[in-house]
Design goal:
The complex is a heterodimer of chains A (210) and B (176). Chain A is of the alpha/beta class and 210 residues long. Chain A is built from eight helices and eight strands; from the N terminus they run H-H-E-H-H-E-E-H-E-H-H-E-E-E-H-E. In chain A, strands 2-3-1-4-5-8 form a six-stranded mixed β-sheet, with helices on both faces. In chain A, strands 6-7 form a two-stranded antiparallel ribbon. Classes of the chains: A alpha/beta (210), B alpha/beta (176).
Chain lengths: 210, 176
């Protein structure tokens, strides 16, 4: 899907990670999970490699990136080394991947990262930082009230917090549009893309005997 | 010194630190008892926020991740319940989740509403100290009963490398 990038954003990074590397990484996670080596839930990505590679050209290596339980692609593209990430995943930390350099934090609660991202963006402005904060959320999170409170504050206070909505129309297995009875329009300054989920909400789709 | 005067002294001491910032509703404009403990502080050290407690808690945590020490003011304990996700699931679990990499330092103030001379009723006077102490693992909880406790408690909250929730008692603003 062709993504509309807000005009105030400029390319700041030559993304080295390629599409097949992202896919291979998740395939490796699948193997380790199905071998019973990962003793925690995994939420796998697929079908949104091109969109994310495009977006991360605009994410500076010193920017904050906030993500959710489905964070492996974001982590790799922001510069967390593959081995470091895989080590965390094997230790059961797939849903809470973190790093202080590059700055990366993820939470496994819907909407939980939004206020945190607002806080780093507010502090960046107070400190006259040139860096931004990026917040990657799903379509159900986009529909929550906390997004709208935060978005209003970000706009009115001119904070450098860029929201990215990744729409697979699924919250676990609940179709977002059906549950809400419709969806809201996406503001022009929010980056948005649609994709179809290939893996299930969590796990690989196969029954694992530990 | 009296209870309220000790709080004012503590706030003035905290405001002298370069990395502190005070935020919440009624930190810049009058409206509750906490305002009266902040009104002597420089305006540039205070950020007036909308009523959005859940965001306020996460925002404070995010600011701390960037190296600031927010003094986040929740005028009543009853109102603090509106940000339990940010407090219990995020701020209080961050060291554990990041294996000690992130240690955000947020100083939270809240108050058990006074019952005299006016009684604010059950939505304005609840004391949740015991349950909140049982819920929090990484955030220190300090109940401020005596004037002499107050300054050392805020001093410790600033010097320690974790977050602290300090619980004041509105009735003591007049009584002690």
């Amino acid at each position: 899907m062709k993504i509309k990038i807000p005009s105030h954003l400029k390319k700041v990074r030559d993304v080295k990670v390629q599409r097949h590397e992202l896919i291979d990484f998740e395939s490796n996670v699948v193997s380790q999970y199905e071998d019973g080596k990962i003793r925690g839930p995994v939420h796998l990505s697929k079908n949104n490699e091109n969109e994310l590679i495009d977006i991360f050209q605009y994410v500076h290596e010193d920017d904050w990136v906030f993500s959710s339980w489905r964070n492996h692609y974001h982590a790799l593209l922001h510069g967390i080394p593959r081995d470091t990430l895989m080590d965390m995943i094997v230790r059961g930390k797939s849903m809470s991947v973190y790093s202080d350099k590059p700055k990366f934090y993820s939470s496994s609660i819907v909407g939980g990262i939004i206020p945190l991202a607002l806080g780093t963006a507010r502090a960046q402005k107070m400190n006259d930082s040139k860096n931004k904060t990026w917040c990657f959320i799903g379509d159900m999170t986009f529909e929550t009230g906390i997004f709208y409170e935060a978005y209003k504050y970000v706009c009115n206070h001119d904070l450098s917090l860029q929201f990215v909505v990744e729409d697979n129309n699924m919250s676990t297995n609940t179709p977002t549009d059906e549950a809400w009875g419709g969806k809201r329009d996406v503001p022009d300054d929010v980056i948005y893309y649609k994709y179809e989920r290939e893996y299930p909400h969590h796990g690989t789709g196969n029954w694992i005997l530990f | 010194m009296k209870y309220k005067d000790e709080i004012i002294r503590s706030m003035e001491w905290l405001s002298e630190k370069e990395d502190t910032i005070f935020l919440g509703q009624s930190v810049l404009y009058s409206g509750n008892a906490i305002y009266n403990t902040l009104k002597t502080l420089p305006e540039e050290k205070r950020i007036e926020l909308p009523v959005f407690e859940e965001i306020q808690m996460g925002m404070s945590t995010g600011m701390a991740l960037e190296g600031l020490v927010p003094i986040s003011c929740f005028p009543r304990f009853d109102f603090l319940l509106r940000c339990m996700d940010g407090l219990v699931n995020h701020l209080d679990k961050m060291q554990h989740m990041t294996e000690g990499t992130f240690k955000p330092k947020v100083i939270m103030r809240t108050s058990i509403g006074s019952t005299s001379p006016l009684n604010g009723g059950v939505q304005h006077t609840q004391d949740h100290t015991d349950p909140i102490m049982r819920m929090l693992y990484e955030v220190n909880v300090v109940s401020l009963h005596e004037p002499k406790q107050i300054f050392p408690a805020f001093e410790e909250a600033y010097k320690t490398d974790c977050s602290t929730l300090l619980i004041e008692r509105g009735d003591y603003y007049n009584e002690k």
